[in-house]
Amino acid sequence: MLNAWFVTNKYYVSNSFLLLKKLICDSAKSHNIKITEYNNIDIIKHISLSNYEKPDFVLFWDKDIKLANLLESDGIRVFNSSESIRLCDDKALTYIKLKNKKIRQPKTFFSPLLYYHNILEDSDIIDYIISELGFPLVFKECFGSFGKQVSLINNKNELVLKIKAVDNSPYIMQEFIKSSYGKDLRVYVVGDKCITSMKRENHNGDFRANIEVGSTGSIYELSDNEREMALTVVKELGLSFGGIDLLFGEDGEPIFCEANSNAYFNEINKVTKIKVEDYIFDYIINSIK
Questions:
Q1: Could you give the residue range(s) of every CATH 3.40.50.20 domain in the chain?
Q2: What angle do CA 234, 62, 8 make, to 5 degrees?
Q3: What is the mean pLDDT of residues 17-34?
């Protein structure tokens, strides 16, 4: 029997997460894996003990990158790796990593590093970005989940107010893909295979397609180009598994949106009748042999 740790964040609990945890724990049991849950606070206490017993692997369902890296420094296999989590968690880093990789992305600008000033003091760069992206444009804080830190900006006044609201927190501004308003494609990749996919559509007028903001999912058959893009993204980011979000271009070609290192699979399981968690554990078992 394999021994595994399931690492979560103490300060985030929701009904969706509790369902996800049940799916993971039930799948671990069916794979003859003894899984022990630790939150990111308790595990720090545990690994500070001398000669603690290391698990065969860690399923890391958090974005505490330093903690994942600490576990790796002790020689523990962590899925996903701290580096892949780092690249996915920061939307600016994701964009940079995939730039020039033959992966179509919206035109993107990210906020500069600031010390004691505000970018609004440099009105010329704001005007330049507006001239390049036009309105509406998509404003995303670099760190965030479930679409909560994503806004559609319609004019310069809204943009100024948004920049003031986030203060010096990092963010990106992107070209708005009108042809994908309120809809996108979620592809779940494990290893080098697209396990399942669904189209997400928001019928409430919201431009975002996240399930958490009211969208619904439906079964979707990937095109060759969509499949190739999702697999390329996973490879470039070093993911063992993850949810890749693609937009629908005007010409029908996919446009990369975001990569999620610990994407929930509750809805995609329900829609497609595929048990993503089983594929994840199959992959991990084969990887650590």
A1: 2-86
A2: 135
A3: 97
